[in-house]
Structure to design on (174 residues):
């Protein structure tokens, strides 16, 4: 459980780093006339992500979940891959990446990096990490609950983003 706790704490530290980048990027976007959309879904999203980390730490202890290498090792690889995809998304969007939906008028859609193939690759990373991180230590209730609630919230979030980006056109070879 010690190594798993360290993993969850590392993911929490990574999330704090994301928030620092998001704050800086929000200031950049707002200074350029950006507008925030969908503020109402943001607090439940933050709460759900905090609950994921807490559930990852509590469920294995309270429910006496074992570490099963045949499940835990592949799920650890998924968590690492999800982190890689997330930071590729952040690098590809540059100062436009944010944990909030902030759109700067007049900027074309980003079509480089993973956005070349997927419209919302960051959400794929979030889904993969949210399902896999608890399963590293057999916390299947946390994985299931997060996945179901996250799918619902991502549906809300993606509709919000699509509406906010409605007028943006893809840019060629960005």
């Amino acid at each position: 459980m010690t190594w798993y706790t360290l993993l969850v704490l590392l993911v929490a530290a990574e999330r704090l780093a994301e928030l620092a980048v998001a704050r800086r990027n929000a200031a950049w976007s707002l200074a350029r006339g950006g507008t925030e959309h969908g503020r109402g879904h943001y607090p439940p999203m933050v709460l759900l992500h905090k609950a994921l980390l807490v559930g990852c730490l509590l469920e294995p202890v309270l429910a006496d979940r074992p570490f099963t290498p045949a499940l835990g090792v592949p799920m650890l690889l998924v968590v690492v891959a999800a982190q890689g995809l997330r930071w590729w998304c952040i690098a590809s969007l540059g100062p436009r990446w944010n944990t909030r939906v902030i759109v700067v008028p007049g900027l074309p859609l980003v079509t480089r990096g993973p956005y070349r193939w997927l419209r919302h690759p960051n959400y794929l990373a979030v889904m993969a990490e949210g399902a896999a991180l608890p399963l590293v230590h057999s916390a299947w209730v946390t994985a299931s609950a997060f996945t179901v609630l996250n799918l619902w919230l991502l549906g809300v979030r993606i509709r919000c983003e699509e509406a906010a980006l409605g007028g943006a056109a893809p840019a060629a070879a960005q």
